[in-house]
Amino acid sequence: MLDRIIQTKGKPYGWGEVIALLLRKRFGCPIYWDDPDAFECAEELVTAVYAETGIRIVDQSTGDVCPQDLWESAWLEDVKELPNH
Questions:
Q1: Concatenated DSSP letters for 58-69?
Q2: I want to staple 42 with a disulfide (CB 3.0 to 4.6 A). Which of 1, 14, 17, 65 is the partner?
Q3: Which domain holds residue 16?
């Protein structure tokens, strides 16, 4: 999974996806944006986990994933319960 994420180094950040997420989640606008040459951290994590395990850790059919989607994931419930360091 780390190799897949490392491959995004130096690539542009997916600001179009971030803006679309903001409009969709905050204002309810059904706007989706996907630039295959730009990357967003949460989306890359979800994509890498799915590629390696076949498990979709978030319920997103569009591929647009925000950190909140990860926080709400039932697959990551145990991670949220780890003690703070």
A1: S--SS----HHH
A2: 65
A3: 2-80
Report the number of distinct structural domains present in the chain.
Answer: 1
For residue 75, being part of any structural domain is answered with yes
Q: Is residue 61 part of a domain?
A: yes
Q: Which residues, in sequence order, are CB contacts of 62 under 8 Å at separation 6+?
A: 32, 34
- For the record, the structure tokens of 39 come out as 């990357």
Q: What is the mean pLDDT of the segment spanning 31-60?
A: 83
- Given a contact cutoff of 8 angstroms between Cβ atoms, the answer to whether 56 and 73 are in contact is no
- pTM strictly above 0.70: no
> Is the residue at 85 inside a domain?
no
Token digits for 20?
A: 């679309």
Mean pLDDT for all residues in the chain = 80
Average pLDDT for 7-36: 85
The residue to which tokens 């145990």 are assigned:
78
Which of 66, 22, 23 minimizes the C-alpha distance to 44?
Answer: 66
Under DSSP, is residue 39 helix (H, G, I), strand (E, B) or coil?
Answer: strand
